[in-house]
Design a protein that fits this description.
By secondary structure, the chain is α/β, with parallel strands linked by helices. The chain contains twelve helices and 25 strands. It has an eight-stranded parallel beta sheet with strand order 8-7-3-2-12-11-10-9. Strands 15, 16, 17, 19, 20, 23 and 25 form a seven-stranded antiparallel beta sheet that branches. The protein has a three-stranded mixed beta sheet with strand order 1-18-24. β7, α4 and β8 form a beta-alpha-beta unit. The protein starts with a helix and ends with a strand. Residues 1-20 form the signal peptide.
């Protein structure tokens, strides 16, 4: 045996002995550090405006693959995800009432090939909002354009949105994507444009929209549904506006902000030193990223407005191949979403786009990207299973601190009682690698838990999130099911070669244990 592999084996043995002496205690009732009751649609999505016709299709050719994938999550959770349509391209889009195409764009290839920087929108764009039954949407309006074209875009598209999102299709409103970067990128605002100037502009345009709504769909105002996600700050590199100062500047004076909306990415796709093991599959990295929002939400708690992440994913810049599209990124997504839920982030919208490396699925066939389900989607499915049917129960979640970079656990309580445990082993195991730093065979970690002897818990049922390794981009399953497009267009298909239906007996002393291979996860259901 090579020395490095011997040391790895010894480390695993010592860790296992330590756990045997110190099992992880589980509270049978909701502990004091648990979250508030989770909101419906905690697991939600954001879709780049430029990509939305690809994801949803139109009335003559709806994208049923996307619909099936989203409905899978809705069926597990008891309600469908809320879909936000926005991203950078919402502020690059001008309306053309005479355009036949939904969208047309001009690319600036020396900056990015992922989306155009100049986009025209035709009336047919709004057909895409009508292809998915029983889903509600947030349409992102253009804040950046201050000229006559920008004004007419608002005036002409609000009535179309009212028509497309009538009934229960309207969730909330939004105008502007990451305005805290307007001065940093492409000089879209002058140097003197500060938080108060932003707040005044935002209020002016939302008041204009309200008058347009009053004329086109007054029932929205009458039913109390003229409410916004705001301010949609990036809160990352290049940020030039402070959220606290924006609210001090009067942003909330019209009392029409339903959720404080901020964005989050762990790091960037081209940032030096970003790796799967140390950036994504690292619980401490995730904690540091989310905790900055906890500090902000604490400072803003006096407003009494819930704090959410209206756009989030792994690496800004649309992700990186080999990192954001891997099974390791799916595991990161589980840890990230559950840590957000456990610490008071009230909803997370995972951002999507055509050809985006971090996307949960590719909605259409492209020259270099195959239509299909991608690794991060399995993380979305796992999170939905961990949280369960929020629509019918009081569901709360707590972080079980294992004091580890690569092992995490969460406990879910339903109506006050322990219902599920989420468990992640984030140590990197690349099945395509044969380096001396990696064990010859895939290691397991043993987790030993203890419930009180009088808890009545007798058996644990297990669902596993599995792939061949952290670098896998295919062959991924949750509880033995694949959601691949080529099997049944995204609907769950049971795989015969995957073990499922696993159960664990709880000892009379309240102890039970489970082995997790490196780079895998499990959901434990308490019976």
């Amino acid at each position: 045996m090579k020395p490095t592999r011997f040391l790895n084996s010894l480390t695993l043995l010592l860790a296992g002995n330590a756990r045997a002496l110190n099992p992880i205690p589980l509270s049978p009732q909701t502990p004091h550090n648990a979250s508030d009751a989770l909101l419906r649609s905690f697991v939600s999505f954001s879709i780049e405006l430029w990509s939305f016709p690809d994801f949803a299709g139109n009335l003559s050719a709806p994208n049923t693959f996307s619909y099936d994938l989203l409905r899978n999550i809705g069926e597990i959770r008891g309600d469908n995800p809320i879909i936000r349509i926005g991203g950078n391209t919402m502020d690059f889009t001008i309306f053309d009432p005479n355009q036949r195409e939904a969208l047309k764009g001009n690319y600036t290839l020396n900056i990015t090939r992922d989306y155009p920087f100049s986009i025209s929108m035709g009336p047919s764009f709004f057909e895409s909002y009508q292809t998915w039954d029983n889903f509600s949407f947030i349409h992102g309006f253009n804040l950046e354009s201050n000229d006559t074209k920008g004004y007419h875009t608002l005036v002409e598209t609000v009535p179309l949105m009212c028509k497309a999102l009538k009934g229960n299709r309207l969730a909330y409103w939004q105008i502007g994507n990451e305005p805290d970067l307007f001065k940093t990128f492409f000089d879209r605002r002058p140097a003197w444009w500060d938080e108060e100037q932003f707040a005044r502009e935002w209020l002016s345009k939302t008041r204009l929209i309200k008058e347009l709504v009053r004329n086109s769909c007054p029932e929205v105002i009458e039913n109390g549904k003229y409410m916004f996600y705001a301010p949609a700050f990036a809160a990352g590199p290049g940020n030039t506006l402070n959220i606290s100062k924006a609210f001090d500047g009067g942003l909330a004076e019209d009392d029409n902000i339903a959720f404080i909306d901020m964005h989050n990415y762990i790091s960037g796709s081209t940032v030096p030193g970003v790796t799967l093991a140390n950036t994504l599959m690292n619980h401490t990295s995730t904690v540091h990223s989310v905790n900055k929002h906890l500090n902000q939400s604490a400072h803003l708690s006096y407003l009494g407005i819930p704090y959410i992440l209206g756009e989030a994913n792994s690496l800004y810049g649309q992700g990186a191949s080999g990192l954001s599209n891997s099974f390791g990124a799916a595991l990161w997504g589980v840890d990230f979403n559950l840590y957000c839920a456990a610490t008071g982030i009230r909803r997370v919208h995972m951002h999507q786009g055509t050809n985006y490396r971090y996307a949960s699925w590719q909605p259409v066939q492209r020259a270099n990207v195959t239509k299909g389900t991608k690794a991060p989607y399995y993380g979305n499915i796992a999170v939905a299973n961990v949280l369960g049917d929020i629509s019918r129960n009081n569901t709360r979640i707590s972080n079980i601190d294992l004091a580890s970079d690569h092992e995490t656990a969460y406990a879910v309580y339903v109506d006050g009682k322990l219902a599920r445990i989420a468990l992640l082993q984030l140590s990197q195991y690349n099945y395509t690698s044969n380096t001396t730093n990696q064990p010859a065979t895939r290691p397991n970690s043993t987790f030993i838990f203890q419930v009180p002897q009088d808890s009545g818990v007798k058996k644990i049922f297990v669902q596993r999130l599995m792939a061949n390794g952290s670098d896998a981009i295919s062959g991924i399953t949750f509880d033995g099911y694949s959601y691949n497009y080529e099997l049944d267009e995204g609907k769950p298909v049971l795989q015969n070669n995957i073990t499922r239906g696993e159960s664990i007996l709880v000892g009379e002393d309240g102890l039970f244990d489970i082995d997790l291979p490196w780079s895998s996860g499990a959901v434990l259901h308490i019976n």
